[in-house]
Design brief:
The chain is α/β, with parallel strands linked by helices and 277 residues long. It has 2 domains: 7-201 and 242-267, 3-Layer(aba) Sandwich (Rossmann fold); 202-239, no CATH class. 45% of the residues lie in helices and 14% in strands. Helix 4 runs parallel beside helix 5 (166-186) and helix 6 (204-217) crosses helix 7.
């Protein structure tokens, strides 16, 4: 297994992407610390990971709150010490920043800009606060194994701009820029920093969104009509599920990408393809 004997932390544990990333890492041998604002989903995910023969623990934390990030880091340090038996020398091999805030889908001229703070506080500052809080654990793991990994879950919305998504896209674009900065600054410690950029992530939330779009068109339209239109825009003709997208996180978290850092990987079935130059 690619991640045998490694430990990971995944934020934003919910029924979709966060869960599927955590399970994908566990299938490859990692023990996983789960972080979410509520216990709504975490107990089930813990059981699923344990059923795979790996260890898991759920921690409550709000990444937009710096004090909460500090508490998560302290609790993670204690848990890793128990798992490793190494006490204060225990480290964290993998951090996956999956928590996000989608913002309000409103045109700029109609926006209350004070409401743009929430996606920025979570997607940008919150991600950085949590990363900074657990950085000593990542440095400890890199010092022991020569390699630690940070994976940012970003979005195609920073490349394929949509009207009304300014708050979300702006916060994620800022994260995209600082991801490259972290890759440069943390590379000396042996910490790799990369990002994946999903497009539409097929699941219940996107179906609900497509149902809303269909209702806006009139009684003859269905969510399947909207899906077919969006899928036709991709090179592969479909919208990937979060369980498929999780495989790209495993790649960045594994030794297979040992020499890769500062990279933004589109994971969107070819919905947006980067230019060749």
């Amino acid at each position: 297994m690619l991640l045998e004997g490694r430990t990971a932390m995944v934020t934003g544990i919910g029924p979709g992407m966060g869960r599927d990333i955590a399970l994908a890492l566990a299938r490859e041998g990692a023990d996983v610390i789960l972080v979410a604002r509520t216990h709504r989903v975490m107990p089930e995910v813990v059981k699923e990971i344990e059923a795979l023969g790996r260890r898991a623990v759920g921690l409550l934390g709000d990444i937009s709150d710096s004090d909460s990030c500090s508490v998560v880091a302290e609790q993670a340090t204690a848990q890793l010490a128990v798992w490793s038996g190494e006490g204060a020398d225990a480290g964290l091999d993998i951090l996956v920043n999956s928590a996000f805030h989608g913002g309000k889908h409103v045109a700029f001229e109609d926006s209350d800009l004070s409401r743009w703070h929430s996606p920025m506080d979570v997607n940008f500052f919150g991600t950085l606060q949590l990363t900074q809080a657990v950085l000593p654990l990542l440095k400890a793991a890199a010092g022991r194994n020569g390699d630690a990994r940070i994976v940012m879950i970003n979005t195609m919305s920073v490349q394929r701009i949509e009207q009304g998504a300014g708050a979300y896209a702006a916060s994620k674009a800022a994260l995209g820029a600082v991801t490259k900065t972290l890759a440069l600054e943390l590379g000396g410690y042996g910490i790799r920093v990369n990002a994946i950029h999903p497009g539409y992530i097929w699941g219940d939330n996107v179906r609900t969104y497509f149902e809303w779009q269909a209702a806006e068109r009139g009684p003859e339209a269905t969510w399947q009509d909207v899906y077919d239109e969006r899928a036709a825009e991709t090179a592969l003709g479909y919208l990937p599920h979060s369980s498929e997208i999780a495989g790209s996180v495993v790649f960045f978290a594994s030794p297979l990408s040992k020499c890769v850092t500062g990279t933004a990987l589109p994971v969107n079935a070819g919905h947006w393809i980067p230019p060749s130059t």
